[in-house]
Automatic annotation (TrEMBL):
InterPro entries: P-loop_NTPase, Rad50/SbcC_AAA. Transmembrane segments: none annotated. Gene3D superfamilies: P-loop containing nucleotide triphosphate hydrolases (3.40.50.300). Belongs to the SMC family. SbcC subfamily. Pfam families: AAA_23, SbcC_Walker_B. SUPFAM superfamilies: P-loop containing nucleoside triphosphate hydrolases. It comes from Cellulomonas rhizosphaerae. One of its GO terms (molecular function) is ATP hydrolysis activity. PANTHER family: ABC TRANSPORTER ABCH.3. Signal peptide: none annotated. This is Nuclease SbcCD subunit C. Residues 6-215 form the Rad50/SbcC-type AAA domain.
Amino acid sequence: MHLRTMTLQAIGPFAGEHTVDFEAVSASGLFLLDGPTGSGKSTLIDAVVFALYGKVASAEASDDRLRSAYAAEDVESYVDLTFEVGSGIYRVRRTPAYDRPKKRGSGTVKQQASVRMWRVLPDDPTGAPASEPLTRLDEAGLEIERVVGLSRTQFVQTIVLPQGEFARFLRANPEDRRGLLQKIFGTEVYERMQQRLAEMRAEANREIEAARAALGTATAHLIGAARLGEDDAAALRGCVDAVSASTGVDDVTALVAGHAVALGADAERSLAAAAIAELGRAAAGVALDDAVRTDRLLARRTRLLAEQGALDAALQQHGEAVLLLERGRSAAAVRPLLEGADRALADVATARKTVLAALDAAPAGLTALVPGLVPDGDVDVLDDPAVLASVRQVREDGVRDAAALTRVVGLEADLNDKRRAVRDARDLVETLRDEIAADDRWLAARPALRESLAEQAASADALAARAPEHAAALAGLEATAAAHLALGTSRSELARAAKAQAAAATEATEAVTREAALRTARIAGLAGELATALVDGESCPVCGSADHPAKASLAPDHVSAADVSAAERRRSDAEAALGRARDLHGRLSERVQLAEEQLAGSTPEQVAADLAGTSALLAAARTAVGDAARLAAGLTSHDEATAARQAARHETVARQADVTGRVEVLQQALDADEAEVALACAGYPTVVARQSVLLAVVGAATELLEAVTDRQEAERHAADRRAELDGALAERDFADADAARAAQIGRADLADLEQGITAYTAAVERVRAGLAEDEIRALAPDAAVDLDAARDAERAARAAATAAEGHARIAVERAAAAQGAAADVSDAAGRLAAAWTAGGPVTRLAGLASGTGGDNGKGLSLATYVLARRFEDVVAAANERLLAMSDGRYELTRSEQKEDVSSRRTGLSMRVIDHRTQQPRDPRTLSGGESFYVSLCLALGMADVVTAEAGGIDLGTLFVDEGFGTLDAHTLDQVLLELGKLRAGGRVVGVVSHVDALKQSIADRIEVRPLPDGPSTLRVLAS
């Protein structure tokens, strides 16, 4: 994987937009990511990891730090990364989640994270998409992990090598080391397999225990069902306890089968005895039934003979009742005709009275129009057809005239409303005329008022238009004022740095002078130092003579080699302090010079005065913005009100014309209606009064005609009913109606008479039939039966049969229960043996995988064994570089022993072999520099193994994080040499450090520098 370009904005300390051209700094294969501590070097690495995986590089760090605290609220935070893999070039643009101001109203709202990822055309420098972009977070994440070939954890351990992480890995206990290796190599599947085998072992043990419990339960059921004795129960339990994976099942089956057979034979014997007892009970029951039936027949014959005697005594009374019933039925048949004839005569009298009442109520208008019709006169006059015809004619004339007046009655009723409508319309015309005059006066004052509002709005608009100009000027002045404050602070810091630099220079000069003086003194005193080591007879190391006639003496203030080494260390420390002071002084000088160049031509006093004036102008302009809006709204409201009033006046004028025309129409209609009503009155006060008289005449004529018709109908009906009655009397042999009325019997008495006759006849027939039955005739005159003796015999036989049946039922149930329980015991024994057989291999395999089984000699679990093999690969890959970086001194090895007593597992311990002493060392005893390059070798070895595990992924770009400051010059050269080998293999290595020596060794670099006002900037330097 090769990184091409990355653009970021509002990320970490970078407030603005910055672009990193990785291709430019990757030409030589090695580049430096340089900058002071806290300036933002790690932010660039976090941005790369975030663009690809949506999270920063460190697992402990929060993603909230991505949003820049220096960015403006409306500036979007994003990272735009272009990278190349074997399958092509891809571009991903990702934004973090952060709080942004609401577009409407006050406060903030959560801006959700987003992503866009697409494939890029190879030769397109703009990064235009060659395919539809992925916009869902989950889809883009899966696609990036697919094309890169690494998970985030693997990426951070192979592309970004954090020194601190692997220093912790080097010193970690085996448990922590196990967790990291498992996360990187994805060996959780072996852990899950080990856990699953343990679960399967537990399940197998539970199945065995469940089968054993089921066998015990089935055995207890069999003992209870078969009611076994203590000896038989103990023998059965002992046989059951012997059941295992391969033995005991057949013995249990044979034993329980024997008990089941014995109980079955006892049940068969009990069933046979019960059947014999049931036959005796049936015979006794038959004898009892015969005795009961004979006793019942004798009692019935006695009752029938007694009833026959009573019926013979009542025979004459029965004959008289039959004759009386026949005469009463004939009278009942003609009674409806008698009642009908009486009702018809009553209806004739009622109808005659109704005619008389109608004639008495007739108005004078009716009697005057019909000759011969006189109130309180004879009703028979209406039998004259001529009189009836006159009444009908009067009614028809009255109906016609009243109908003709109905419309005029309505006109008469509406006259008052129409007169009122004419008055209201005339009043409305006057009201509308007044409204038009008021509108004319109001509209005449509107133009002058509008002109005044327009002038005020124009002035406010002109003043408000300058608000952005004043705001921009104020922001610039505020930035300039802040820069003046920062410049003052930087000048103070520069003065302090100059003093510190001068003091460091003085101290360094003194240290150099003292070291030189000590070296000179030591050289001067070397003769005396050598002389103290001369021995008579041994050669001098200077002249070779064995004689030492005049040995040089050692001065009292002789300088030793230790004194020179101490002075050399003090001089080195003083020079290092001077270098740091010069570096700080240079940075502050550069900052002050840059600020002075930016602020040339301005003074703090001038800026303060300009700030006050511009603030006042901006406040006035912002006030004018509100005034302009208010005046514009007022002008709009003024125009709308004027237009609305003009439209209302036009509507009022049109309405006045319409109402004026309507007054004339209403008056004409009113005049016509009044003339027609006056004509229709015809001498009556009103049309309604005339119509009421006509309707009264019509109603009286109609009532009189209906009464005459009802009277005629009643007389015809009475004649018909009399003829029917005369025929019925003759048919029933009644002399007249009075004779029929005398023969009538009440309905209740008639029903009682019929019921008595019917009951007597039925009783005679019932007694005759009963005495004629075969069973009654077959009885001997002196027949008798002993019923109590038969009942006693049947009761004794039934008790014996019930006892035999109960004993047989118990025996059968016991045999059936024992047979089922025996089958359950056999099945349970088989299941227990099968559970033993099935659970054995699982238990052995689970013990082997967990490291607790006897077959696992080393006691390593499956997951630990797999990780140990991967760990060996990592150690082997790390040693290839470690031997070179340490000049062959150090080598890593995996140990089977526990690193400390707190370790729970073996297999992931690690030791460092020191080939100078040939002794293994705890990694925690290494110095800071040694820990750095040993950790770096581990990280590079891990990267090689992960790459191979992932299918040989090309790791084109590699970042090595801080830690170089702990190395001496020689070791630093060795580390850079190994990194150079990575470069020769086609990788691009980015070194993250602020060590000055690396700036001299690495030409291509990305410089990150903090600005005076807080945020950072960067630049790319490529040769």
